[in-house]
Structures are given as C-alpha cells and as structure tokens.
Amino acid sequence: MAIFATTGDNISVTDTTDATGIYSFIGLTAGNYRVAVDGATLPANMTISGDPDGGVLSSSFDATLTAAQQRFDVDFGYVGTGTLGDTVWFDANNDSVQDASEEGIAAVELMLTWAGRNGTFGDADDFTYPSTTTAANGSYGFAQLPAGNFRVAVTTATLPGSMVQTYDLDGVGTANSADTT
Length: 181
Known about the structure:
By secondary structure, the chain is mainly β. The protein is about 0% helix and about 35% strand. Strands 8, 9, 10, 12 and 13 form a 5-stranded antiparallel sheet that branches.
C-alpha cells in the first residue's frame, strides 16, 4: 500500500508499507500534513474499516505536527468484501454430490487460510482466520475476505464417528482441505 504525505508547501512524498503494514515518514518539520492511502495499491475487493479520526471513514487524515513531534497512530484499517462458504454434509451414497436427502453436519470446525498478497501458500504473508463451526444444517461461511487464494480445511476431530472425505472441491485429493480462488 502506498502512503502519501503532503506538506504545507504541497510537496508529496511516498512510502510503501512493509509486509506487516508499517510505514513511516522521517524527518518531517513542523507543519500541516495530509496522509492518504493510494487505493490502487490495495488488494482487490477491500474497503476501509478504520481510520485515525474514528469518525466518517476516509482513506486520508490531516495532521498538524509541532517541532520534533512524532506520531505513530495514523493507522488505516481495511477489510475484504468477499465471502467464502458452503456446506459440510453426510454423503450417504458416497457419490460426491449432496442429494436432497443428504443432511448437513452440524458443529464441524473449519479453518481458513489466505495465501496472502503473493498468492503462495506456506510463506510469511499467509494469514489464518479464526475458525468457524458449521450451523445445524451444515452451512458455514467466512466474510470480509480480500481477493486471492484460500485454503479451507476441515478439523477432522470435530467430525462425528469415523467419517472420511468423499468430495474435494479442487479435485486435488488433499485430505480434508481444498484450495480456491
């Protein structure tokens, strides 16, 4: 994400957040500044969820600095607009298709991992969301997701009895998980 700071003399400088979202402008003199997030540098399907003034959400913030003042509270939060989910069900006839008579399984835990901005699983920018549990009808969902690659995994210890996987969304055959975009 690119961050811009504009001084009272209308000089713009840019900084890009690091892998943890940190940015900084060093050596600023006393004066008026506007910090603004360049929305074009955000992952797709993101919307603002928090800004420094806590009022009307905005991707910019105006601040006045005194001599030698340091501010480390000009933070902006974003959430995705995507949703991912479906159903965990008992495949009674083992045909990998949920038939009308096949009920969902309640209380199954699912984990969701986002492959991060680089789209590759197994490296430092992966993010695992808090788990969710299926509803009484076997449905589940994860909301406020950015665009990208995701891995959904069933926590097998939460399945009833000795059930085994019969359907795999991505067709790779990875036991109890599927990757999707």
